[in-house]
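Quick check before the chapter quiz. The format below is the same one you will see on the exam, so make sure you can read both the input and the output lines.
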Amino acid sequence: MSGACPSKRADFTAPSGLQPLSRSPYVATAAEAMKNYKENEAGIWYKDGADPNDPACRYAFQRLRQSWFSPRVNPKFKFSREDKFYAIGSCFARGIELSLIKHKIAVESAAPEFAKFQPVNKEVSGLGFTNKYNTYSILNELRWALDPEAVFPLESIVQVTKTTWYDPHTNPTLSLVGLEETLDRRALMQAITKRIANCRAVIVTLGLAEVWRDAQADVFVNRTPLPSLFKTQPGRYEFHLSSFAENPFL
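Here is the expected output.
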């Protein structure tokens, strides 16, 4: 009989190239999804007969007509004034620290121990010394402070003159100093970074995708090496343009 249905269902083969959704960031049962829908006051796009200019703005099409769009978000968690914060990353992190401190929020990254540092430019804060400009240098700092098995690569600290040394994992806010003081600064940096473990919130501000690697010490550094080192140690440093996937925090 032509057109007869097969007695056994054929196995379904997924199209090639499709990835399973086992790593979806959120999965809900049908009951949970319907509960979320009913409880979400901002979850409906449109309703027939609704006044576009209704100030209550229960529907999304009404809110989008406003001069100022205000998203409605139900926070999954909240902070209290007793919570401690830690900011790490580019110079924007320093601005966030300042704003939080003005609101009398405890910010562990803005440690008073850094106040003793005298920046080259008197108009900026010595906290700029802690700036981290790429995700590699952020991760490095966290590992050296928190991972007992991570060892800071002393070889990456380079002698510049007879009396000054250079830590490429910091910011050039401070003047170059002798080896002992350079290592003291490094020890303080790592001691302060350990305090991140006691903070409820960590703020990360991202900087550059362009990064430099010290090929001799086998480590990515925080910033462009001193120009003089390109002459005295040619071939030591490599420039990398990192991709989205290569950035550890993304």
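If your answer matched, good. Residues 30-63 form one domain.
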